[in-house]
Description:
Layout: E1 4-7, E2 10-13, E3 35-37, H1 55-59, H2 61-68, H3 70-73, H4 85-90, H5 94-101, E4 109-112, H6 119-127, E5 130-135, H7 138-150, E6 156-159, H8 162-165, E7 173-176, E8 197-200, E9 203-206, H9 207-217, E10 221-225, H10 231-235, E11 242-248, E12 251-259
Helix pairs in contact: 5-6
The structure holds 7-methyl-guanosine-5'-triphosphate (MGP).
Amino acid sequence: MGRKKAINGFRITLIPQVPKLENVSEHFESNSIFEEYDENSTFTAPQRPQKHSPKAQERDANLHKYWLQRYSYFSKLDEGILIDREGWYSVTPEVIASHIASWVPRKATVLDGFCGVAGNSIAFARRGCRVTAVELDRSRLRLAINNSRVYHTCIKFVHGDYCQQVLNSTYDVVFLSPPWGGPSYQSKDVFRLADIQLTSDGQTVDGFEIFRLARAASPNVIYFLPRNTSILDIASLAPKFYLEQHWLDGKFKAITVYTGPLFQNQK
Length: 267
Ligand code: MGP
């Protein structure tokens, strides 16, 4: 629940604490680090709509610009959406997430390998896809589950490492929106796929390897990338691809690469 505080005569509702997962059915598969949360899990969602407070975001100059665009990320922001620091700068704006989802047939199985606070997973689920959403950060996963509840979507959430999860099953589509190393991608003239660097099982995994792993789980991969990504790197991923530029309010935000038979002759 949000706490109320009087500041300069105004009553401000502070951002609520991360809700507790209660009675969540967790199970550990043998030889696996995954815990699964699905539609059968019970979860305490926010009891009533919460107003987000500008306080924290206004204090933090780096987050201020995201705060100003807050309703572009989640139109239901005030209905209980929770976003952490990394979520603010990496969540896909809702209209872009819905557009990306519109490329995927309804009922398709989709792996969202880096679900973050669930912006894309929610869009795929609203499209009618059967979504498995993976997140390594446990606290962020709780926010994702909360946000999915706000949108009344049914998503299978997995706490774990994309590089391991992607080896476990096959999917109609794998969606990739990995961490790009934070907003500093903007300072590079050209962003290289090798600049995406994750650690999995003690090994460094770059943006090429992330894609290679996805292709092993599905012939159809959607890759959400910085707007300054090297076109040569993208061209080296697959012989045929669609590349889409996303513009919002006159600003070039990001690009998406679609590869695989599902996307041939789609648009
Ligand atoms: P941005 O460049 O930080 O914002 O991110 P903006 O508003 O274009 O910044 P400005 O300074 O040019 O005005 C643009 C979009 O890219 C965000 O809304 C996110 O959807 C996405 N994005 C940004 N980052 C840093 C990441 C990231 O690390 N990972 C992923 N997957 N997406 C990101």
